[in-house]
Amino acid sequence: MKIYLNTVGCRLNQSEIETFGRQFRAEGHTLVENAADADLAVINTCAVTREAAADSRKMIRRAARDGADDVIATGCWVTMDPQGAARLPLGKVVLNPKKDDLVSDLLDIPKETFDLEPVMREPLPGARLRTRAFIKVQDGCDNRCTFCVTTLVRGEGHSHPIEAILADVQAAVDGGVQEVVLTGVHLGSWGQDFDQPEPLPFLIRAILRRTSVPRLRLSSLEPWDLSEDFFQLWGQEPRLCRHLHLPLQSGCDRTLRRMARKTTQRSFRALVHAARAASPDIAITTDLIAGFPGETDEEFADTLAFVREMNFAGAHVFTYSPRPGTAAATMPNPVPKQIRRARNAELRATVDACAAAYRARFVGDTLPVLWESATGLGPDGWQITGLTDNYLRVNAHADQDLWNTITNVEVTGLNGASVYGKIISHAT
Fold first, then answer.
1. CATH code of the domain occupying 1-126
2. Where are the alpha helices (DSSP H) in 214-336?
3. Confidence class of residue 128 from pLDDT cuts 50, 70 and 90?
4. Rounded Cα distance, 92 and 107, in Å
């Protein structure tokens, strides 16, 4: 069969769609770039926001409209709203509890077939062509943040075994990947559900010791999962990317309590200080929600001041939207929509100023860059863009296509939300 794969949402969804791709290829099927060329389209949906749910529905309809012979949908939105999914042009819906068995069930083969021999990772065609591999090491979550629908549709937390993760990482590296990103709904809880619990640093050290991955990046980590000595990893492991995404959601303790977030200004501040003491140039990014139910002007002012104090290198800022089934959806004193949007804009402006100051620190420095895209300019060479390990977006000119290579680059100036760079030498 010719298979078209696409996804909406987080890095975990991207990891899952890449796994589907490896499994289909292992059984001799071909991945195609467009739904029009496909016998089967598989869409991995998202429900984290109303916009993500709407994008999921659009992607399903588009795959059917473009001519895929059959469309299967899986993921968080179809799990949350199977009745809504039933109204779309779908051949089948696979809910999250059965997602990991999607390919084996469809092809009617034992799931263990895929464990017999690791399949080399290849980038998905088209828009999914990537230089980084997202490896799912954990799924589900035992937290009950009052705004979060993900815990309702992903179930309880459970960790993947370390040997399976190591095999996935090395398969990705053997396929040419320069950077692996560890993903999970609650990544920091990896290993805690084992009969003999292991901490996340155990997994990180094992990957760096037992695979040849050039760069290892961590996705989102809940701040309460980390101790201050966790950050010593960055002094011990040069291949570990200097980037931490620590979701804050609010900078006001009262709002955090209503969110059921297990952090406070004081504890979050201590973590950030410890991280920067261990790795002064580390990029710390976060998530923020504007206009959570009951958020007063005073509480928003607390959040704004704390965001300035933390001086984040970047942030995802979301306008609060109620999600069905969550505790926050029934809370009193909802913030009017126009105020939510205004607070979102103010938070974004604050974060943008902090991020610009962070980027400016590196002008004149030499950093390794993984080039993620290259556009041919004919006899004038190539326009290339990529990421440093501390998550700076770099633009440069090259005399050859350097896609999926790492080179040393001198940061020469600022370019909006990115920087300009001059290639100094090839690192790999």
1. 3.40.50.12160
2. 233-236, 253-259, 265-278, 297-310
3. very low
4. 14
